[in-house]
Amino acid sequence: MVLPTFDPRAQWSVRVVADDGTVLAEHDPDVVCETASVGKVFLLIEVARRLQAGEVDPDQRVEIPPEHAVADSGLLYRMADPRVSVYDAALLVGAVSDNLATNALLAMCGLDAVRQVAPALGYRDTALHDFIRNERTPDLPWTPSYGTGAELCDLMRRLAAGDVVSAAVSEQVMTWLAADTDTSMVADGLLLDPLAHAEAEYQGMVLRHKTGTTSFARIDVGHLAGPAAGVAYAVAANWKGSRWDLRAPVLDAMRELGETLRAHVTGRARDDEPLR
């Protein structure tokens, strides 16, 4: 698999693997990047584990600690009644990367417990690190989450295989991620319906993914299945401290990679003619 040209002004960490773990392409896969909201996947894993273990009632209403009230990404802070259930709070995290729902679930589980999810899965350089903050001052943890392309790609491969905690936990996490509405990055090249791709959609593709966005970062990690193949992927780009806003070249490269993944998993060329 041929990767697009990545703008060297950004720091990249990229890996694509087949369902059997064979590396199909990579670029600096062990470089640690800030991953914005992508670490919320580890929160969803912990919530799913507690639901499956019966430690939490899915209909229990989430409590929102005043000190962790945030806005920006999501819908919960806009709702007339934010007292949603634990299950629906997790769905909001998967669908719109909801910051307020994230902090409510983090407070419920405990930050220290969620920080241990990634190490327990064997990951050394990837984790959810902190609550979402309206402002990140020097006295706070340096980033909400961080990770490498290699480890995040492996996480998505294992989730698709039912190999994270248990098959039931993995399936639940992937069900929440099926609702992700952000198809602006790698998924842009798949041409899926952003609001309705839980089932097989364009060219028989099924996508489960999570994205992260800041003013200096774009990250997309996921699993894509099609009629011809299945792949897990992770693409992280950071340009913190750069004199340039690199979102345009970064998103162009991500979209191009998405087109390459679409051709691979569908067995069709980008112009929809069968590959010969």
Automatic annotation (TrEMBL):
SUPFAM superfamilies assigned to the protein according to its UniProt record, in alphabetical order: beta-lactamase/transpeptidase-like (SSF56601)
Alphabetized Pfam families for the sequence: Beta-lactamase2
Residues covered by the Beta-lactamase class A catalytic domain: 20-237
MF GO annotations: hydrolase activity
Signal peptide start and end residues: none
Keywords: Hydrolase
Entry annotated with the keyword Hydrolase: yes
Protein name according to UniProt: Serine hydrolase
Species assigned in the record: Microbacterium pullorum
